[in-house]
Every structure is written in structure tokens, then in C-alpha cells.
Design brief:
- With 238 residues, the protein is mostly helical.
- The chain is 74% helix and 0% strand.
- It has 13 helices and no strands.
- The protein starts with a helix and ends with a helix.
Length: 238
């Protein structure tokens, strides 16, 4: 079988990209087999063209088993291309294995790419396999500490499904410290939804956008430009 696999891979590698895609499409239409799984995993491991690797990853989604999940988790840990990693997290997120929860939690907390962090949150919510208290703490941590907007938006969109009065009170504190108007709007809307679910009144006023005031730094910069312009005009005059 090793020789057969090596032969298939050699033939695959020597084919043009169009033919490679055709081979992967034909495999996706076949019944699950050990040979095809081994072949697809090898393609992901050795292929250089990202789009072909992504196609192989998505094809494996139809052939889920424990070995596939384990191998894809390993690939995800070492993969550097974000488009490939996103495909991996999508396939892993739809797997039935409960071992994936740890991968998704780690991705939510530590991944360097904000889209992947966001997709990990989405899959954790849809899978609903981790303890609700752990999920609430994870979402609050993202809302308060994540450095990007998209993960915060995803976390705010799902926290209403979990939040009780304790989480509402924590969101109020986050709301008070938040400086960006758009984020304050999202926080307020989320708190409104939670308050409605709890059948209580929200004692936080909706944020009102204020016109940005000129900072002293901007004023000084304008004054310097004005002085420089005047000097340049005087120099040109003489």
C-alpha cells in the first residue's frame, strides 16, 4: 500500500493544477476508503499550492474519522498559511469528536489571526459541548480583552444565549470603560437583548455619538503648519 500511495502522490505531483483539482473532485464523489484518506492527508502534507491543499482538506470533511481529526489538528498546529488554517478550523469545527473543543478553545484564546479566533468562537457556540460557565467566561474575556473588532462582534452576538444577571453586570462595567462609539453601540444592544431575556429593565442609557474635539496636539500641529507656511511665503516674496 505504501508503494501504491507513493505512486499516486508522484503521479499527482506531476499533474497540472487543473488535473489535480479534477482528481480531488473525483475522490470527493467516491465512498470513504482508507486509501483515499491516506492520499488526501499526504496531499495536504506535501502539496505547495494552497488552493489545492484547501480542496483536499474540504474533501476530508466528507470522510470524518478519529485519525483524520487527529491529523488535521496536528496540521493546524504547525500550519502558517492563514487561508489553509481557516479551512482546517472549518473542517475541525464541524467534526463530531469532542477532542476538538480543546483545539477551538486554544484558537479562541491564542491564535494570531482574528478571523480564525472568530470562527473558533462560532464553532464552540454551535457545537454547545463545553460547560456553559466556561463558555460565558471565554466570551467575556474576548469581549473585554481581544485586540480585534471581529472576535468581539462574534462574542457579543452569541453571549445573549448564555448570559444571566452576573454577565449583564460585567458587560455594564465593560461598557463604561469602552471608548469606541461603535463598540459601545454593540455592547448596549447586547445588554438590551440580555435584559429582555431576563425580563428586566436595562438601567444603561444608549450611547450618543459626540463630535470629535480637536486635541491640543492637533492644534499645535496646525499652528506649526501655519507658521511654516507664513515663513515660506516671506521667503518666496524676497
Amino acid at each position: 500500500m505504501v508503494n501504491d500511495l507513493e505512486g499516486r502522490i508522484k503521479k499527482f505531483n506531476n499533474s497540472p493544477d487543473r488535473v489535480k483539482f479534477e482528481i480531488l473532485v473525483s475522490i470527493s464523489e467516491q465512498k470513504k476508503s482508507k486509501e483515499n484518506i491516506e492520499f488526501l492527508l499526504k496531499v495536504i502534507e506535501v502539496e505547495k499550492y494552497e488552493k489545492i491543499r484547501i480542496k483536499a482538506i474540504l474533501t476530508l470533511k466528507e470522510f470524518e474519522d478519529k485519525k483524520i481529526v487527529q491529523k488535521l489538528s496536528e496540521f493546524f498546529s504547525f500550519e502558517r498559511d492563514n487561508s489553509v488554517r481557516l479551512a482546517l478550523i472549518e473542517v475541525l469545527g464541524s467534526a463530531s469528536s469532542e477532542e476538538i473543543e480543546e483545539v477551538l478553545i486554544n484558537a479562541t484564546k491564542k491564535d494570531s489571526n482574528d478571523i480564525i479566533r472568530s470562527m473558533a468562537i462560532k464553532h464552540l457556540h454551535e457545537r454547545a459541548k463545553i460547560d456553559q460557565k466556561e463558555m460565558k467566561n471565554l466570551l467575556l474575556d474576548v469581549i473585554q480583552n481581544d485586540r480585534a473588532i471581529f472576535p468581539k462582534q462574534i462574542a457579543l452576538s452569541v453571549i445573549s444565549s448564555y448570559a444571566k444577571q452576573e454577565e449583564l453586570d460585567k458587560l455594564k462595567l465593560i461598557f463604561e470603560r469602552e471608548e469606541k462609539f461603535k463598540m459601545k453601540q454593540l455592547l448596549h444592544q447586547t445588554m438590551m437583548n440580555i435584559a429582555s431575556n431576563l425580563q428586566t429593565e436595562l438601567d444603561v442609557e444608549e450611547p450618543i455619538e459626540e463630535k470629535e474635539e480637536e486635541t491640543e496636539k492637533k492644534k499645535r500641529r496646525k499652528r506649526r503648519k501655519k507658521v511654516k507656511k507664513k515663513k515660506d511665503e516671506e521667503y518666496l516674496y524676497f
